[in-house]
Each structure stands twice: as structure tokens, then as C-alpha cells.
């Protein structure tokens, strides 16, 4: 490690002291609640089980499948049709409703509906019943991904220009406001507008908080923080699923989860700016104050001149701050360009498989809330495993291993007989666990491979392209209509491809964060890493 670098300075004044623990804790809360905007639509758009209301028969108990339902409602796969009923004949008194009371040759559209549970989604509030309106439910998830796709690069550029802290806080605040507005709307179109606005501002919340956290600690402690981030992201999913399970109504769900996020306004006084970003912007006094706060535990004060002499000359730092100039230098390097392309592909696959396994998990049991929480909880051992494997074997080995193991689990799942439920469940959850591992390692290795002036931008670009995977994933279950094992086969093949391609990444374990283009190119060139050959 260069003796004249910020990483070296952090190692001297405090690698992971009380001040850094406080900052990381604040950012972990942001990470947890970033899950809300990315997944709440899954509960808002829940396609509930319902049937036509039969006023002539539904007098006392409003059951989904009363004893007489086959007399009044067409049967589809032994279930009541959702949007049609038979025409009644004459006056029907009571709830017996025999077959002679209905003409089964005449079908009528429904005027009202009876639901299996008391759950409430936008399906009822915006009258999105029946097959012809299903696309309006699925489009919500697609629009959520589109908003993120557009917001990621723009917010990434803004955070590199105006600071991680400023953009992070304002983005969360605007995201919370748009989420609260969405909970009160009575128009589907206005609802969709708010979905887009919400996802736009939430797009870079995770990446910006991740970058800020990583830039605050020394290389030796990064793996701990990366694992904690994965852990808290999973907890965010558990919180979302649990609150949704308790409320089972989309409006109060949004009001509670987004209302809490308004507390982000306190971060203006609690959260410091990125020291690396301040140094690049030559705001040395602000950087000095933060570093002195970090070093107070060891009674270490950082001289102002030390900051000015860090790593690169001032003129290099000024040039690095010019994003356009730095981007031109970046793409002149064949090694960095191919590294970025490879990184983007692996990101797409990581998100595609991660989201796909989460969405497909609803087939594990009849309780979708339990299914969701279970697939999120499995990420906790994944986060713990990520910590130990990354710390012992490095980033590249962990990434290759998790991609390969996810592929094996997905492919082997399709060969397990249907009657071996618990074995199928364990293999499926194990695949999700490895998917969560490669997802979190992608963040870590991407952050550590690229230079400081472009770090947040390129992380946002990778995450932006990864949204194409999240846009495709919700539609993958439709492939089961062609061949039931097809979705899992697709997950397995793409994971295998990424496992092979990530062998080309440099090992970044215990390597200082590169501040310049040359430093990024040099990662992995001085010492060949061959440990990821399993």
C-alpha cells in the first residue's frame, strides 16, 4: 500500500473506530429501507384470489367457494372463474342456489366480486380485475425498474459532482414524499407517475450509501462492512414482508414504511460527507475536521499539509474531478473498457437470477408473505458466508464460487421429484443464498476496481444495466407455460456463464481504493492471482 494514501492514513488514525461505527450504522439503516421502494410494489399489486359476487346467493357468509358455487359460476381448473357467472333464472330465495336456478349456456360479466381474504391491493382500488387488466398490475414492476434505469446514471453523476451525502439525503427525502403521495392517490395513472418518481429517486440510494460506507474505512475492514450491508439489506426485506403480512393493505403499508424514511432529514446533521470526495474537490478543511473526529479516539490530529500531499498531486486531483475528461481517459484503456463490459454482464445476471428466484418463490407454499420472508431470510447466512469466504479467499474466488454454486442448485432443482418437497425447498433456498452472495460481492468488487472520480458513476451504470435483469425477471414464470423447468434452467446457464467470465476480474482483497486511471489499470497486474481456479 502506498505510504502516502488515504487508506494508509485511515489505518493510522482508526481503521474502524467509534466514529466510523456510527457513520456505518447510519448508512446501514439507509440500506435496509432502500429495500422498501424496490420491492413494495410486489405487495401493492398482489393479484388476489376472487370470484363473481352472486347477490342472489351471497347473503350470509361471503365464502370464495360455497357449496353451491359450481351451480352459479364456471369452473376453471376446479376453481371458480374470476370474471364470469351463469345467468340466474327467476327469483332465487335463500342460499341453496341449485343448478336449476341458473342457465349454464349464458355467461354474464361480474358487477361485484368476493375475495378469498381481507387483503387489499390496487386491484380493488383501481378496478384492475380480470385477465385483460393483468398487464396493468405487472407493468407496475416494469415501470419501477424503468425509473431506476433512468435515475441511476443521473443521480450517480450528481453524487460525484455535488457529494455523496447531499444527493443521498435529498434522494431518500424525495423518495419518501413520493411514496406517501402514492398511498393517497385514487387514479391509476397518477399512481404510476408516483411509482416512476419513487423509483427514480430511490435508484441510487443503495449504491450511494454503499460507496460512502466503503470510502470511510480502510481496505482490511471493507469485507466486514460489505457483509453488514448485505445483512441489513436482507433485514430490510424481512421488515417489508413482515409489515405487509401484518397490515395486508397497500395504503397503510406505504404510509408506515415511507413515513419512517422522513427521519432522513436528521442526517443533514448526523452524517459526514465522503472524505475522498472532499479531497478531490480540494475541500481540505472539511476533510481535516472529519479525519480529526475519526482520530480523536487515538488522539491523532491530521495536519492540513498531509491532506494536500495525499497520493496524487493537486493538479491530478483537479483533472480527476472532471468527469468528462476522466471518462475519455477511462475508455482509452482497453483493459478498463473490457473490465466494465464484463462487469455489466455479470451485474445483469446477478440481478436477474436474484430477482427471478425471489419472484418464483411464491410456488414454495400457499402463503406468499411467508414465501417472501423465507427467501429474504436465506440471505442472512449468505451474508455471513460472504464475510468469511471473502476475508479468507478474496473477492474473485467468492464471486466465482457463488455463481457456480447457484448454477448447480438451479439445474439440480429440476431433477428432484415433486414429492420430495423439503429437499426441493432446501436446494431452492440454497440457490437463493448463493445468488445473494454473488449479488453482494458484485457491489464490493465493482467499488474496488474503478477510480474514485468515476467510482459512484460506474457503480451506478452497472446497477443501471442490471435493472434490465430486474425488468425481465417478473415475466420469467411465463416460460413455465412452454416448459416448466425452463426458468430454473435459464437461471442456471446464465449463472454458469458469469462464473466463468468473472475469472477475468482482478483480485482486490486488501488493495487500496484506486484514485486514478493508472491505479485502476495496475490492480492485479503486479501479482498474478490464480486462486480462483476451482
UniProtKB/TrEMBL annotation:
Domain of life: Eukaryota
Topology term for the membrane: Multi-pass membrane protein
GO cellular component: membrane
Cited Pfam families: Sugar_tr
InterPro entries noted in UniProt: MFS_dom, MFS_sugar_transport-like, MFS_trans_sf, Sugar_transporter_CS
Boundaries of every Major facilitator superfamily (MFS) profile domain copy: 97-510
Gene Ontology MF terms: transmembrane transporter activity
Subcellular location: Membrane
Protein name in the entry: Major facilitator superfamily (MFS) profile domain-containing protein
Species this chain originates from: Photinus pyralis (Common eastern firefly)
Amino acid at each position: 500500500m502506498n505510504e502516502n494514501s488515504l487508506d494508509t492514513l485511515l489505518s493510522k488514525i482508526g481503521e474502524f473506530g467509534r466514529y466510523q461505527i456510527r457513520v456505518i450504522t447510519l448508512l446501514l439503516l439507509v440500506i435496509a429501507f432502500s429495500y422498501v421502494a424496490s420491492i413494495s410494489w410486489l405487495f401493492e399489486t398482489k393479484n388476489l384470489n376472487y370470484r363473481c359476487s352472486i347477490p342472489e346467493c351471497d347473503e350470509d357468509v361471503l365464502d370464495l367457494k360455497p357449496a353451491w358455487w359450481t351451480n352459479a359460476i364456471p369452473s376453471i381448473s376446479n376453481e371458480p372463474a374470476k370474471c364470469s357467472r351463469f345467468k340466474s333464472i327467476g327469483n332465487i330465495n335463500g342460499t341453496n342456489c341449485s343448478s336449476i336456478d341458473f342457465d349454464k349456456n349464458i355467461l354474464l360479466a361480474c358487477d361485484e366480486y368476493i375475495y378469498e381474504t381481507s387483503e387489499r391491493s390496487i386491484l380493488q382500488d383501481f378496478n384492475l380485475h380480470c385477465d385483460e387488466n393483468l398487464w396493468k398490475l405487472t407493468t407496475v414492476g416494469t415501470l419501477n425498474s424503468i425509473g431506476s434505469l433512468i435515475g441511476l446514471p443521473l443521480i450517480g453523476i450528481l453524487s460525484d459532482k455535488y457529494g455523496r451525502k447531499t444527493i443521498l439525503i435529498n434522494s431518500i427525502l424525495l423518495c419518501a414524499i413520493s411514496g406517501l403521495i402514492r398511498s393517497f392517490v385514487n387514479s391509476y395513472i397518477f399512481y404510476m407517475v408516483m411509482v416512476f418518481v419513487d423509483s427514480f429517486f430511490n435508484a441510487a440510494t443503495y449504491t450511494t450509501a454503499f460507496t460512502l460506507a466503503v470510502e470511510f474505512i480502510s481496505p482490511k475492514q471493507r469485507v466486514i462492512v460489505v457483509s453488514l450491508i448485505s445483512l441489513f439489506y436482507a433485514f430490510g426485506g424481512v421488515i417489508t414482508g413482515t409489515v405487509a403480512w401484518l397490515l395486508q393493505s397497500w395504503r397503510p403499508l406505504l404510509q408506515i414504511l415511507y413515513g419512517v424514511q422522513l427521519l432522513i432529514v436528521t442526517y443533514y446533521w448526523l452524517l459526514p460527507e465522503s472524505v475522498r470526495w472532499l479531497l478531490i474537490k480540494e475541500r481540505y478543511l472539511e476533510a481535516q475536521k472529519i479525519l480529526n473526529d475519526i482520530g480523536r479516539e487515538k488522539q491523532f490530529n491530521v495536519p492540513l499539509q498531509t491532506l494536500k500531499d495525499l497520493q496524487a498531486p493537486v493538479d491530478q486531483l483537479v483533472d480527476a474531478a472532471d468527469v468528462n475528461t476522466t471518462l475519455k481517459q477511462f475508455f482509452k484503456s482497453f483493459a478498463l473498457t473490457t473490465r466494465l463490459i464484463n462487469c455489466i454482464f455479470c451485474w445483469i445476471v446477478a440481478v436477474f437470477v436474484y430477482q427471478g428466484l425471489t419472484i418464483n418463490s411464491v410456488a414454495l407454499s400457499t402463503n406468499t408473505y411467508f414465501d417472501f420472508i423465507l427467501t429474504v431470510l436465506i440471505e442472512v447466512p449468505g451474508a455471513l458466508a460472504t464475510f468469511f469466504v471473502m476475508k479468507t479467499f478474496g473477492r474473485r474466488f467468492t464471486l466465482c464460487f457463488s455463481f457456480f454454486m447457484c448454477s448447480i442448485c438451479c439445474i439440480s432443482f429440476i431433477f428432484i421429484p415433486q414429492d420430495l418437497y423439503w429437499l426441493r425447498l432446501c436446494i431452492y433456498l440454497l440457490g437463493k443464498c448463493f445468488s445473494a452472495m454473488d449479488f453482494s460481492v458484485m457491489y464490493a468488487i465493482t467499488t474496488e476496481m474503478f477510480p474514485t472520480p468515476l467510482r459512484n458513476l460506474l457503480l451506478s451504470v452497472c446497477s443501471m444495466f442490471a435493472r434490465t435483469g430486474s425488468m425481465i425477471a417478473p415475466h420469467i414464470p411465463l416460460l413455465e407455460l412452454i416448459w416448466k423447468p425452463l426458468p430454473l434452467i435459464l437461471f442456471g446457464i446464465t449463472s454458469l456463464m458469469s462464473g466463468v467470465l468473472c475469472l477475468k476480474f482482478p483480485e482486490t482483497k486488501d488493495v487500496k481504493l484506486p484514485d486514478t486511471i493508472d491505479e485502476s489499470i495496475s490492480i492485479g497486474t503486479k501479482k498474478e492471482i490464480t486462486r480462483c481456479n476451482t
